[in-house]
Amino acid sequence: MRLPWLQILAQAARKAARKQGCAVVSCSALKQSYRDLLISETGRARVVLLHGTRAAILKRMAVRENHYLPTSLLDSQLETLEMPNPQEKKVFAVNADSASEKVFELVQKTLKNTLAPPRQYP
Fold first, then answer.
1. What ranges do the domains of the chain cover?
2. Residue 120: which pLDDT band, with cuts at 50, 70 and 90?
3. HEC secondary structure over the chain
4. 49 pairs with which residues across the strands?
5. At CA 95, angle to CA 36 and CA 55, rounded to 5?
6. What is the pTM of this model?
7. Number of C-beta neighbours around residue 113 at 10 A
8. Closest CA to 22 of 4, 44, 52
9. Which fold, 2-121?
10. pLDDT digits over 72-111, tens only?
């Protein structure tokens, strides 16, 4: 069910990157197979996987406006999550428990440093 949607998303990212020089997409690529598909379909994509504690994620979800995912689905999302493994060379995990500004800073550093090996950021 997700496969066609992920393929469309990857195609849109590839098209935008060709036109603009780069592209950023956001989705819940919780499984390695989803991330692998996005990377292979786009070619040079890197994935930043935001993760955090249940409490921190729940707190952020509770204050979002017009968000389609109800907080009642958080536990199933966390159960589905496959954290990146060392073989996922283009996947960077960033802890999102910090303030939004700090998370944004970590993501920017991750994406700017193209020579950095994939790793977990605090």
1. 2-121
2. very low
3. CHHHHHHHHHHHHHHHHHHHCCCCCCCCCCCHHHHHHHHHHHCCCCEEEEECCHHHHHHHHHHCCCCCCCHHHHHHHHHHCCCCCCCCCCEEEEECCCCHHHHHHHHHHHHHCCCCCCCEEC
4. 93
5. 110
6. 0.81
7. 10
8. 44
9. Rossmann fold (3.40.50)
10. 889 999 999 999 998 898 898 889 898 889 999 988 888 8
Residue 86 has which token pair? Answer: 């060392």
Q: Which residue has the tokens 């935001």?
A: 50
> How is residue 81 written in tokens?
């999550």
User: Whats the size of the chain, residue-wise?
Assistant: 122
Which amino acid appears at position 29 of this protein?
A
* Residue 61 token pair: 């979800």
Tokens read off for 69: 């995912």
